[in-house]
Design a protein that fits this description.
The protein is about 15% helix and about 30% strand. By secondary structure, the chain is an alpha+beta fold. A hairpin with a 5-residue loop joins strand 1 (about 10-20) and strand 2.
């Protein structure tokens, strides 16, 4: 698969699904995949992202310029088994309108 950062990758697993009901009543769903890198250089598509880069994992989990959800999921995947998705009640933004499964 080729994703929005121009990286060629194969899907290894789904690690998270995030669902949110927006203030206007519309909803957003994110599906986060664990991928195996094949080739390519990270490049922003200018639509779904404004920057793309590879990060050292230790830097990524602490970098303020990495989206909180990304940092949270990286930490979880380094310490947990992702064979089953379930609601994450510890995610600080979870509420009746915002659900994270990982």
């Amino acid at each position: 698969m080729k994703e929005e950062t121009s990286i060629e990758a194969s899907v290894k697993n789904i690690i998270s699904i995030r669902s949110i009901i927006l203030p206007d009543g519309n909803s957003e769903i994110y599906i986060v995949f664990l991928l195996d890198y094949i080739s390519g250089t990270p490049t922003s598509d200018g639509v779904e992202n404004d920057a793309a880069a590879f990060f050292d994992l230790n830097i990524a989990i602490n970098a303020e310029n990495v989206v909180y959800l990304s940092r949270y999921l990286i930490k979880k995947i380094l310490t947990a088994n992702y064979s089953k998705l379930s609601p994450d009640i510890l995610y600080p933004f979870s509420n009746s309108n915002y659900k994270l499964f990982c």
